[in-house]
Design goal:
By secondary structure, the chain is mostly helical. The termini are far apart. It has 13 helices and no strands. Helix 7 runs antiparallel to helix 8. The protein folds into 3 domains: 70 residues, no CATH class; 114 residues, no CATH class; 86 residues.
């Protein structure tokens, strides 16, 4: 028989080694699914941690570049409080103008809160009067609205009922999932505690090791970290001895945690500060524009502050705001 030889024009066959542990993985299908869910969750946790670190680094770089300009705007806006509050103590302004000044103060505080994350709660509490229910403006708006026909009223009622049922179902599902996680965590914790409690060990070295392990188990249970508890269970061979139905329940709990982690990861990646945001040269251009805008805003607010130091200047600013339909600069 003619011996076959490898063709010089064709590459030699490639043999891919198969890990023995994977090729001959012992255990049932439930055990295999449980361990796959653990590995998938571990990978998601690593991805989420990496995304959080990347976002923190990006935020730090952002504030290193934009922070000084933003701080200048914050300082300029806070400098508006003194002349505005001082004007309220003088007899030179009408009640309408005083109401405008109060709106100016509250609007300025709102800008500092929403745009820069500043704590202006004291200013808001001092000047923002809550509007009572059924205020004249709201009553007038309701009176001006055209009445609905019986069919429209019925359709509106059905829509509201559907929305309420959906909200109740969502709340119930979230509460049920939370109860399942808590129940699963408690069950795993008790199983691990029965096996690894140091009081059940007489050997001093083993007792010290189990004390450290029990501290880790307790910490995972107190923080509600079902993944860590299940990982400890898998490491201690409890998963191999567990009933198939129990493993299926744990696997389902891990899948729910995977969904939660995927949602968190998606929010980090595609949120305003995530990886889906602009990067590289485009991001640098955006940052330069943001800094230019902030510097221009700081200069404008400082100019307004100089106007507010005089009664005529404050009146002029109030007229300009009223003409443009604004409450604050």
């Amino acid at each position: 028989m003619k011996k076959l030889t490898a063709s010089p024009t064709l590459p030699a066959p490639v043999r891919v080694p198969v890990p023995i542990a994977e090729a001959c993985a012992p255990g049932s299908l439930a055990q295999a699914a449980f361990r796959r869910a653990l590995l998938a969750l571990e990978e998601l946790r690593a991805q989420l941690l990496a995304a959080q670190e990347a976002q923190a680094a990006a935020r730090q770089r952002y504030w290193q570049q934009v922070g000084p300009a933003a701080a200048a705007v914050v300082a300029a806006r806070r400098a508006l409080y003194a002349p505005l509050e001082g004007a309220l103590l003088t007899p030179y302004f009408s009640r309408l103008e005083e109401a405008q000044i109060v709106q100016f103060i509250v609007g300025n505080a709102g800008a500092l809160i929403t745009r820069f994350g500043e704590d202006e709660a004291a200013i808001v509490a001092k000047y923002a009067a809550p509007r009572p229910a059924g205020a004249p403006a709201e009553a007038a708006a309701e009176a001006a609205a055209p009445p609905l026909s019986p069919q429209e009223q019925a359709a509106q009622a059905r829509q509201q009922a559907r929305a309420q049922r959906l909200a109740e179902a969502t709340t119930l599902a979230a509460r049920t999932d939370q109860q399942r996680l808590q129940t699963s965590a408690k069950t795993v914790y008790r199983q691990l505690a029965r096996t690894h409690h140091p009081d059940l060990e007489r050997d001093p070295a083993q007792q010290r090791a189990k004390t450290a392990l029990m501290q880790e188990i307790t910490a995972a249970y107190e923080t509600g970290d079902l993944y860590a508890l299940l990982q400890l269970m898998a490491d201690s061979a409890h998963a191999d001895a567990a009933d198939a139905d129990v493993l299926i329940a744990y696997t389902q709990a891990l899948h729910r945690q995977q969904i939660d982690l995927k949602n968190q990861l998606r929010a980090l990646q595609y949120g305003p500060d995530g990886a889906g945001a602009s990067t590289g040269k485009k991001r640098e251009i955006e940052l330069r524009q943001i800094k230019r805008d902030l510097r221009a805003e700081a200069e404008y607010v400082q100019h307004v502050a100089r106007q507010l130091s005089e009664t005529a200047g404050l009146r002029e600013v109030l007229r300009e705001l009223a003409a443009e339909g604004l409450e604050t600069v």
